[in-house]
Amino acid sequence: MSSTFDYIVVGAGSGGCAVAARLCEDRSARVLLIEAGGTNRKLEVKAPVAFAKQFHSKLDWDYWTEPEPHLNGRRIFSPRAKMLGGCSSMNAMIYIRGNRLDYDDWAAAGADGWSYTDVLPFFKRAENNDHLHDEFHGSAGPLNVTRITADPVSLALVDAAAQAWKVPHNPDFNGAEQDGVGQFDVTQRNGMRFSTAEAYLRSGRKPNLTIRTRLQVTRVLIRKGAAVGVEVTDSRGRLETITATSEVVLAAGSFNTPALLQHSGIGPAGHLRAMGVEPIVDNPAVGEHLMEHPLVYLTYELAGNHTGLFDAEDTRHLKNWLLHRRGKLASNVAECGAHLRTDPVMAAPNIQALLAPAFFYNHGAMSWDRPAATVGLSYIAPRSRGTVRIRSNDPTRKPAVTYNMLSTQSEMDEMIDAIELARTITTAAPAQGLLGAEITPGAEVRSRDELAAWIRTTAQHTYHPSCSARIGAPGDGVLDTRLRVHGVEGLRVADASAMPTITRGNTNAAAIMIGERCAEFIRADHSYEQISPTTSEATA
Fold this sequence. Notes:
Blueprint: E1 4-10, H1 14-23, E2 31-35, H2 43-46, E3 63-64, E4 77-78, H3 100-108, H4 116-126, E5 127-129, E6 143-145, H5 152-165, E7 180-183, E8 188-189, E9 192-193, H6 196-201, E10 209-213, E11 215-223, E12 226-234, E13 239-250, H7 253-263, E14 266-267, H8 269-274, E15 281-282, E16 294-302, H9 315-324, E17 336-340, E18 351-356, E19 372-379, E20 387-389, E21 400-402, H10 409-423, E22 435-440, H11 448-458, E23 460-461, E24 491-493, H12 508-525, H13 535-538
Parallel strand pairs: 1-2, 1-13, 2-10, 5-6, 13-24, 14-15
Antiparallel strand pairs: 3-4, 7-17, 8-9, 11-12, 12-13, 16-19, 16-22, 16-23, 17-18, 18-19, 20-21
Helix pairs in contact: 1-12, 4-12, 10-11
């Protein structure tokens, strides 16, 4: 097996699959894609409703944070996928790009070339939307985007939310406006999850792409200021060196990418020395600025004969899915949702409501003994920042992660406002005869002080860690606007850690877009034929 390639891509997740496949479009380029996990061809991956069954399994890095200072010192479970497709093989498959304002703010803050107008063509280039065909969507990309047959409970919740929250029905959260309530688009095909492994790696012949799984990269090799390869270890602990003649791209995720940079000598020099790592590039921003969306769950018993997904594990539903790829196992659980502003003067939504016809609480680890529904409230405009720091010079040890969520009173106030608004859903006519007793937080939790205490005791996150190796000026950021690591030639990042600030919504679509853009930058810098979207697409 060759030990020399033109490009080495570390991490076969949302961004990594995209950049590796696009680089292979130049048939003379030898591309190696390295993944620490193995295959994603598992029932709990393919059956959409089963995504939470991957948690704490061999498919999961199984992260836990340090004690969170603003969440009563709790350690927060943080699943990160360890398999082909990365978190696109583990997530709830919701396809949300974020808000136009997110990208325009990036550009205004110095990320030239990352405005909404700049990034839209790359979202479209990645997308094959099977039901939306307009200036906001692509129909020829590798990533299948569709809409499932939603459960009647979900559709009733949409109508109830529209009435109670006084928001319009929105047929496309990725279109002209993000505000409103409606059904989510999802990354599925024929009732099955459609991850970036299916989209980019298993579509078309790629003789110049080598994929190696169950191989963990322990550091990037840097000589004379340039990345020249990687050091890896296999499941038996055997070390190997692999050379890159052009570039190394890190797409290992918002925890593992900054940790790998630090183990390679790129990061805050004082911390690296304290951990026994010799600094090569002193950049205090590596592992800083970590952002995440806090999440709380309002849950209700279903009234009458409504069942939702309560009986989804019944063998008849499994048989229906196995034979026809439809039914309850094709549900992504959070089938519908809304984007809301708790204060109408806000420039964009600050809350994403997740409407699910099932009891989902504490990452799906808890159950309820009768049918229920969930209104998840994800705070999509956070300001708190956390950190990712290596614990020692052992690159196989997980880094220390602290989200530092809800560190400001204003964030807490907005979360409480969201709960008070969300609770009004029970007053709308479509909710009558649908929603019964409130399970969580429960009728006894009413005052703002009581809600604040409940939030600090129960809040989780929305599985969207970002910004820990962000675009920004040296010292304040890790990357330039072409995703190149400051101070090291031939080294880039192509995952959600590159975001200057977190987007308003689920981050998978944005990570794929970043992978698409990274490949474009590399091809342009190395004088390959560029793969930019057409002029007509770019001006849409």
